[in-house]
Specification:
heterodimer; A: Alpha-Beta Plaits; 2 domains; B: alpha/beta; Rossmann fold; four-stranded antiparallel sheet
């Protein structure tokens, strides 16, 4: 395409947006609404998934060692557990550490003396698994080892937790999927009807000898611009709303883990813009193609 | 210049529009296609700018066989054939100047060339003062003159006019005919489909009469 033609095609797109102002406004608002819904659903997914991960990361296996095991045997047990498949970390809390921690938490320093120098705490290994679904298997393997008194990992609760986190993740994915589909449908239907209303314009262009590419390009650019403007507005709304939500949650329900990673937030907003522009451009070109056969 | 050989056209719904048409039109000729509504005049015109394809037979413009043109070659044909329509077919969101400029932009003319050509042709059709108006702001006669200007701006060898005076009053119709006559005298072949018998009878040009998809008469300069 010659340079003056490229310039004409780009100018053409801008002029057309201006002259079909009501169609432009309707399309921009549709793109914006669709992207706002999509953006909110992505943040919903991110937070449900994050919540699930946080819940899962807090599942640990507490392994209590028999009192008859000496320190060397305890360390040996720790090493054996460390090599079990699926074990991430094993942390030893000796009985001495345990009583000190207990004293500190109770605000007393004479507990051991009060107990007649008998330390009631056992040595304890805190085992973290690489995946929450492996916890039960690891715990069973540890329980079968010699020198182990008791293994606790929240039996019963764990099954419920896994179910809950999986449900949360699926819910998030379903919400994003549904909104992504609805957004695509909304944007493409709107742009389609925008293009359809200009059918006679396209037919006239063909009659005066415009090539298909010459007709398609301004529509492609128009679609992209509609997506861009709608996307920028959507970014403003979703960005501002999420920042407000973050601040509110931090001050009101601080214990709930909310996704606050700046890079992640910027990436989601950026993808919304790219998504809007891509959907706008593609819907536009596909709609025009119908009249160019 | 134009050669139509044994052409028949049957539409996809089974309607037969043309039956075994043969027609030769020389360079610089002015030919009227006449006949009642539904006779096949418009279909014949559409074959000439490849809006429709012949079901049987062949249509040539110079040595180009229109049935053999692929989709990419059709725009090239249309750029050398000016077409005028009864309903004008102007781009409603473009000004008069832009409508005429568009036909040149599609063939990649420079900005300067487009401006010069457009102002020149607007002067010929007497619409210089309306160059910034939109089609909806013009009368029927003015819109048709814009349509003629657009058809002529790329200096086509053939001008096809499908009922160009159909929506105009007598005064405007004669204005358009004067323009077409002038264009023809400069060497452009003009083929015009019309119902306007008063125009056909006064112009004394070749008259091809079409009825029920067949050519039933072909007279040179006789009253119809």
């Amino acid at each position: 395409m010659a340079l003056n033609t490229v310039g004409f095609v780009i100018r053409q797109a801008f002029v057309s947006l201006k002259r079909n102002i009501w169609l432009t406004i309707a399309s921009v608002l549709t793109v914006m609404t669709a992207l706002v819904l999509l953006g909110f659903s992505v943040f919903f997914l991110a937070n449900t998934s994050n919540l699930a991960t946080v819940f899962e990361s807090q599942v640990e296996i507490a392994v209590f060692i028999n009192d008859n095991q000496n320190r060397e045997q305890v360390i040996d047990l720790r090493n054996q557990i460390q090599v079990i498949e699926g074990v991430d970390t094993v942390e030893l809390t000796t009985k001495e550490d345990a009583i000190v921690q207990f004293q500190q938490s109770m605000g007393t320093s004479s507990l051991l003396e009060d107990l007649g120098d008998i330390n009631p705490f056992p040595d304890k290994l805190t085992v973290m698994a690489t995946d929450v679904s492996l916890v039960e298997g690891i715990a069973n393997q540890i329980a079968d080892m010699n020198g182990i008194d008791k293994v606790r990992y929240g039996q019963g609760f764990l099954e419920n937790l896994i179910q809950l986190t999986q449900w949360l993740r699926w819910l998030g994915i379903a919400v994003v999927g549904a909104f992504a589909f609805a957004s695509f449908l909304l944007i493409s239907l709107n742009i389609k009807s925008n293009v359809n209303s200009r059918e006679s314009e396209i037919r006239i262009m063909r009659l005066v000898g415009a090539s298909n590419a010459f007709i398609k390009w301004p529509f492609f650019i128009e679609g992209m611009l509609l997506g861009f403007i709608g996307g920028v507005l959507a970014i403003g709304i979703v960005g501002a709303a999420y920042v407000w939500f973050l601040q509110y949650m931090i001050s009101a329900v601080a214990f709930l883990p909310i996704v606050a990673d700046q890079m992640f937030i910027i990436s989601v907003l950026g993808l919304m813009l790219i998504g809007g522009m891509t959907m706008g451009a593609l819907a536009s070109v596909f709609s025009v193609r119908r009249f160019l056969k | 210049m134009i050669s139509i050989k044994n052409v028949s056209k049957i539409y996809s719904n089974g309607a037969r529009a043309l039956s075994n048409i043969n027609l030769e039109i020389s360079k610089s000729e002015f030919v009227f296609l006449v006949g009642p509504s539904g006779a096949g005049k418009s279909t014949l015109m559409k074959l000439l700018y490849r809006e429709e394809e012949a079901t049987r037979g062949q249509v040539f413009i110079d040595t180009i066989n229109l049935s053999r043109l692929n989709a990419k070659q059709v725009p090239l044909l249309r750029r050398r054939t000016g077409v005028i329509f009864q309903d004008f077919k102007l781009l409603s969101t473009k000004t008069v100047f832009e409508n005429i400029a568009f036909a040149q932009q599609v063939i990649g003319k420079s900005k300067q060339e487009i401006k010069e050509n457009t102002l020149y042709i607007l002067d010929i059709v007497g619409l210089s003062r309306k160059k910034d108006s939109f089609p909806s702001e013009l009368s029927g006669g003015e819109q048709q003159r814009v349509c003629i200007a657009r058809a002529l701006v790329n200096q086509p060898q053939i001008l096809l006019a499908d009922e160009p005076t159909g929506n105009l009053d007598i005064e405007n119709a004669w204005g358009i005919m004067a323009l077409l006559e002038g264009i023809n005298q400069k060497g452009t072949t003009v083929v015009m489909a019309t119902h306007a018998m008063h125009i056909v009878n006064k112009m004394k040009k070749r008259v091809v009469k079409v009825e029920e998809g067949c050519i039933v008469d072909d007279n040179l300069g006789e009253a119809y």
